[in-house]
Amino acid sequence: MRSSGSTPSRRSPTAVRLLVVLTGEDHPKACTGRRLLRWGRARPFSTGGPGAAEAVVLDPYAPTPLSRADADSVRRGGLLVVDCSWNRLSARGTFPGEGDRRRIGGIHRRLPVLVAANPQHYGRVTELTTVEAFCGALSVLGREIEARTVIAGFAGGDEFFEINRGRLERYRLAAGPDEIRSAERELFGGT
Predict the structure, then answer these.
(1) pLDDT at 112 over 80
(2) Which of 55, 119, 140, 185 is 20 to 30 A removed from 130 (C-alpha atoms)?
(3) How far is 157 from 146, CA to CA, in rounded Å?
(4) In the chain, domain spans
(5) Are 101 and 42 in contact, with CB atoms under 8 Å apart?
C-alpha cells in the first residue's frame, strides 16, 4: 500500500497535459520546471509526442494573449512552457536549446499580464517562474483546482493567487483575446 503523503498523486485523464522544455540555464534547485517533472506534475516535451503540434506554447513574445477561446486547443494538445532564464530569452518563437537554437511549433500565446510571487522576482510584472506560468494559464482557462494542485508546495504559491486574485478573475471572465487586452488596459493602464 502506498503512503498518500510521499507519492505524487496521479493526474486524472481529464487533466490538462503540462509539457516542459528544460534548457538547463537556471540553478537546478531553483528550477520549478525540473521540480514539476520530478514530482510528476508535468512531462518533458517531445516534438513527436501526442498532440505536440497542437500544444499551446506560452510565449512572452506572442501578440495574442491566452484566453478561454484557447480551451479546446489546450485540451487537445496541452500547455507547453520553455523553462529558461529570463536573462537569455530570445526573440519571438525561438528559445535556447542544447547548443543550437530550435523553433518550438504549436499555437503561441502569451499569458495575460500577471505579477510574480516567487522569491527571485517577487512583485515584478510578467517575470513568472514555470510553475507560476502554468498556474496562471490554468486559472485563465477556468481550471482553478488544477492550478492550485500544480503550484502546491512551491514558495509563493498561495501568495501568487492572493496578489493576482482580481486579475485572474477578470481574465477568466474574458471570452477572447480582445477582452483580455481590454482587461489588461484597465488593470495596468496604457492604450
Answers:
(1) yes
(2) 185
(3) 13
(4) 18-188
(5) no
- Eight-class DSSP state of 66: P
Pair 111, 140: CB distance under 8 Å: yes
Per DSSP (E only), the strands in 31-189 are: 43-44, 56-58, 79-83, 94-96, 101-103, 107-109
Q: Grid coordinates in use for 84?
A: 529558461
Contact 121, 131 (CB under 8 A): no
**pLDDT over 90 at 51, yes or no:** no
Amino acid at 81: V
Side chain identity at 127, as an amino acid letter?
Answer: E
Q: How far is CA 128 from CA 12, 70, 75, in A?
A: 26, 20, 23
pLDDT in tens, 132-174: 999 999 999 999 999 999 999 888 889 999 999 999 999 999 9
Residues 33, 92: contact at Cβ < 8 Å? no
Task: Decide: 146 and 137 in contact? Cβ < 8 Å.
Answer: no
68's grid cell: 478561454
19's enclosing H/E stretch is strand 18-22
Q: What single DSSP character describes residue 127?
A: -
The rounded Cα 170 to chain-centroid distance in angstroms is 18
